[in-house]
Amino acid sequence: MKITNKPILLVEDDQVDTMTVIRALKEIHVTNPLVHLENGEEAIHYLREPKSDKPCIILLDLNMPIMNGIEFLQVVKHDDQLKRIPVVVLTTSEEQQDKVNSFNMGVAGYMAKPVDYRQFVEIMRSIDAYWTISEMP
Questions:
Q1: Is 109 helix (H, G, I), strand (E, B) or coil?
Q2: Which alpha helices (DSSP H) does the chain contain, by range?
Q3: How far apart are CA 72 and CA 134, in angstroms?
Q4: What are the per-10-residue average pLDDT scores of the chain (137 residues)?
């Protein structure tokens, strides 16, 4: 069964990366609505807002102002209402420690943001295939 009505939550402060994600999702025919928030704090507010639609997956950047990705994970993964939502980290970080910390906090995946757009589409395709959140054309 495809979950196409649940939003994908993108937590990302970089406009170019955001546009790239939107473009890639469109290219692989993902029909889920995309909710885009610019930092971890906004994302926590959104997730805890009773009226907001809980996402089927969270795509999380690590390097953000106000509340970064690791701090966001610390909050989400200790919240009984939110901890089961799969989180995939999308980051430019080369830090091994970021990777270790992310997996220690139960992320579903960790992907370095490729500079090459085609490569990025393939990463989004693999995330999508894994979560089967899109409808095939």
A1: strand
A2: 15-27, 40-48, 69-76, 96-104, 117-131
A3: 26
A4: 77 93 92 93 96 92 90 95 92 85 90 82 84 53
pTM above 0.85, yes or no: yes
Q: Please, are residues 123 and 95 in contact by the beta-carbon 8 Å criterion?
A: no
Residues 6+ apart with CB under 8 A from 15: none
The pair of structure tokens assigned to 90 is 């999308």
| Helix, strand, coil tally for the chain in percent (to 5) | 40, 15, 45
Q: Which phi and psi (to 5°) does residue 34 adopt?
A: -110, 125
What is the spatial distance between Cα 88 and Cα 113, in angstroms, rounded to a whole number?
12
> In which residue are the tokens 């990705």 written?
69
